[in-house]
Amino acid sequence: xxxxxxxxxxxxxxxxxxxxxxxxxxxxxxxxxxxxxxxxxxxxxxxxxxxxxxxxxxxxxxxxxxxxxxxxxxxxxxxxxxxxxxxxxxxxxxxxxxxxxxxxxxxxxxxxxxxxxxxxxxxxxxxxxxxxxxxxxxxxxxxxxxxxxxxxxxxxxxxxxxxxxxxxxxxxxxxxxxxxxxxxxxxxxxxxxxxxxxxxxxxxxxxxxxxxxxxxxxxxxxxxxxxxxxxxxxxxxxx
Length: 239
Hints:
The protein is α/β, with parallel strands linked by helices. Helices cover 38% and strands 19% of the residues.
């Protein structure tokens, strides 16, 4: 049983712990980001947000597109339910799903498990573009990003049945690139978001598929602060 206090962190762990992580599955970021809203309800720092969720006035839109507004995919948008729509509840989830008319909170998740420097420019561009997209529908949405960075000593990725282990030379081990990737993300991507958290972890993606946080206590403290600040911002922006 995982020791994390928060749903988002438990969900992130579940991508790696005890099973192979398949980086080409495009819905994994959605899954992680959607649990931000579960945690916001659970900490109950914004009575306004909790009441609106309980009355199904606010929902998570897993398709990440506002009705009537073209948009690229975001990982988890939260906003006002379209009046003609019906909110859909899922077992075990506090926040219902449905199409949104407005975006009040937008969350994006990226995961850098290996070959980080090779893809860092694209990841930064994607993050900045998504923050811009969240704001394109009008209003003043709270933009949040979570970026997982792997600090493992080695790693194996999968392409179908093909395995690609790092060797520290041609294919750098995650630990060799993690610090540089984090610096560049903080310099270039962080300013585009209201809240931006690096999730530092270790996963080899090799049997028995172990997972650990670099520092769980620190990660939970930082995430708790993000939840508190988002709750406070929500009360100020969406009266």
